[in-house]
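Worked Example 4.2. Consider the chain below.
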Amino acid sequence: MQAPASLTLRPAANTTALDENQRLAIYASGGWVAFVLLSVMVLNLAWSVNAAGWAAGLSIVKWAALGGILAGTGLALTRWPGAFSRLYALIVGAAWILFVTSTLAPAELTLFQKVQVIWEQLLSWTTGALSGNPVANNMVFVLQVALLSWWLGYLAAWAIFRQGRVWRAVIPVGLAMLVNGYYGPSHLRTYMLIFLISAFLLIVRANLTRQEEAWQENGIRYARDIGFDFLRDGAIFTVLVILLAWVTPTAAAGGQLSSLFEPLERPWETVRQEWGRLFSSLNYQPSSLASAFGRSMTLSGPRTLGNGVVMDIKAPNGNYWRGVTFDTYNGRQWINNDQSTTTIGMDIPLNAPAYSARRVITQTVTTYLRGESVLFAAPQPIGALVAGRADVTVLPRAPGAGSLPEAGAQPVDISRMRSRQQFKEGDSYQVVSSISTADETSLRQAGAAYPVTIQQRYVQLPENVPPRIKALAMQVTANAANPYDKAVALEQYLRTTIQYNEKIAAPPAGVDPIDYVLFETREGYCDYYASAMTVMARSLNIPARFVAGYSQGDYDAEAGVYRVREANAHSWVEVYFPNYGWVEFEPTSAQPTVVRPAQQTAPQDKQDTADDEALKEKRDLRAEEDKYGEGQDVAGGDLPAGQDFVSLPFAGQVGVGIVLLAAMGAAVGLLSRRSRRQQPAVLAPDITLRIYERLERWATRAGLGRRASQTPYEHAGVLINALPEGETPIRRITDLYVQECFSPVAVTSRDLQTLFVDWQSLQPVLRRYWSTYQRTLPLQKRFDGLRRRGQPR
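Applying the procedure from the previous section yields the following C-alpha cells:
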C-alpha cells in the first residue's frame, strides 16, 4: 500500500528512526500529521491552563502532557494488551509526574527529599479535605492538574493510534478546554481557537485515512496529494464554523435549554462550592457576569473588569443593585446556605418581612447579558414581576408585628432571585424592592436586641480567625457606644487605612485573607473591604453579611436610566438593626459613602406617607407596582454603545456547540447500537442477505474469509471448526441464506425472527475470536485492521 504524499516522511538510513512496522502503525491512524495535530491539541490545553494563572508552577503541565502523549503513542505501537499497557502507563506516569512536580520544591533538596515534600503536602491536603475545612495548597493543585494532563495526553494518543477512535481523543480535551476557558480570563479564547482548528483537522485527517483505505481496497485511483487538499479545505471549513458560532445566537443564550439544565443548577453550585473549599488559595478570576453570582465566592487574586454594558436600570433613584447575599464565612469563602426556595412572579404575593422606615420602589431592568438568569434589584428585594424562583431564609413571624403576610404565614428574606427562562440581549424585567430610609438617629437608637435566628446565623465565624482581627475591631470601635456607631467606625477605618488595588496577589496558602489584607498588604479591592468589615463586625457580635452585585453605575439623563457596566461589579456590607432590618454600608475607599439623614423629618408629601403605609397593608406585588411603579419600560433590543457584539464569552458559545455536537454524536451512536441490537418491528425482506454479508465480513477480518472455490456450506464448516460454540446460529444463518438465494421456497417471517436472534447470539462469539486473532498478528497487519473504524459490525 502506497502512502499519500502528505505522509511520506522517510528517515535516512543512518538515523535512529522508527522501524518499518512502527511507521506503518502510525500511518494506519493518520500518520505523522495526526501525531502533530494531536500534540498541538493536547499541549494547547496545557498552555491555556498555564496562561489562566490559577497558581504558580503550572508551567510544568506542558511537560506532563507531552509525556502522556509520547507514552500513549509508544504503548499503542506495541503488542501489549490494553490492561497491561494501562498498568504500565500508570506506573510510568506516576514517576514522571512526581519528577516534574519535584521541580517546584526548593532546589537545594535532593530528589528523594523533594518527593518527601510532595508526599507531605498531599497528606496535609487530604487531611484538610476530609475535615471539611478550607484547604490552601497550590502544590497539590498543580500535581493534580499535571496528572490529569498526563492521562488526557496518554488516553488521546491511545484512542487514536490503538483504537482508531478520534472522538475519544477530542471530547475529553475539549471539555477540559471549555471549563478552563469559561472560568478563566477572557484572553484564553485564543487557545480555544487553536483547539478547535487542531481538533477539526485531526478529525479530517483520521477520516481521510479510513477513506483512503476504502479507495485502495476497491481499486479507486485518487491524487497522491489529496491529504494536503483535505487539510486545506478542512482548515477553511473550521474557520467558517467558528465564525458561524461567533455570530449565531446559541440555544443557551436564548433560554431554550434553561429548563433542561435547571435541575443541575444546585448540584453544580454545590460542586463549585466544594471545589472552592478544596482549592481555596487559587487565583480565581473575579467575573462581572451574572453567572458569577452563585452560592459561593472565594477571596482570590487580581481581577480585570471590562467596560461592556451589563444592564440599564430605570429607578426613582440610584442604589446598589444586589445579586446575592452570603451568610457563612469559612476562612476563605463566603457561602449562601439558603436551602429554601419560593416562586416569584407577576401575581404571586410574597411574604416579605415588615421593617420601619422603608419605601417600596419598582425598577425596570434591561439586560445585555445573554443566557443569564440572575435578577438584580435594590436592597431589600421583595419580589419580581417575572416568573422565577428565589432563594430565601424563612423568618419566624413575630406576633402582632403587623407584617405583610397573611395571619399564620412566615415572612421570608430573599437572598437571590433567578428568572425561569434565561434572558436574551435586550430583554427587560421588573423587580420590587423595599429600600431603607432610616436616619442615623433611629439606627443609633435601634439597640442590640437581635432576633435569635439573626444572631445565630450572622455572627458566625470560623474558629481559626486570627485573634488580632477582633482585637483591631475592638480598638477601632472603643469610643462607639452603639452598634451603628461601631459599624460606622469600622467602615471609616477601612476606607482610610486600606489602599484600593485590583491587582493584589491571592493570599498565600495557609494565610487568612482578612488578616492578610488588614496587617500584611493593607490593600485590596471591594471583596476584601467588604469581607474585612463583615468579619470585624461579627467579631463584635454585630450581625452583618457580605453582599455581591453592582454599584449604581452612571446616570443617563437623556434615557432616564442608570447604565451599569462590567467595571461596576461590586461587593458591600449589610448590617442588621432591630426593627429596621438590613442596612447598607460602604467600606471600599474607591466608592462614595452611603449618605443618610441625621434625623428623621416629618413627611414632606403624601408619597412618603403612602410609602410607610405600603408595608403595613396586605397588598400583593401587583398593587404595589401600580402605586409605586415608574411607568413605561425601558426601550430594549438595541445594542448600547461600547457593548461588545458577543456578550456571551467565546468559550461559552463555542463550548455549547461542542457539547451539543458531542451529545448528538453520542445519541446517534447509542441509537445506532440499540437499533442493531433490538429486533425491528418489521424485518426487511433482504435481512437474510444482509446478515450473511455481515457474517462474511467478520470472518474475513478474523482470518476466516471465504475462498472463491468454497460453497456456503463448506465455508460454514470452516467457521464451525474455529468457533464450535457458534455452530447452531452459523448453520441456521447459512441454511436461510441458501434457501433465500437458491430455493423456490420463500423464507417465512418466523424464520426471519429466528435469524435475527441467531445473529445477536453469534456476535459476541465473533468479537471474542476477532480480539484473540488480532493479538496474534504482526504489527503491519494488525494496524492495517485498526485503521477501520473500531471493530467490524
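The mean pLDDT is 78. The longest strand covers residues 358-367. Compare this with Example 4.1 before moving on.
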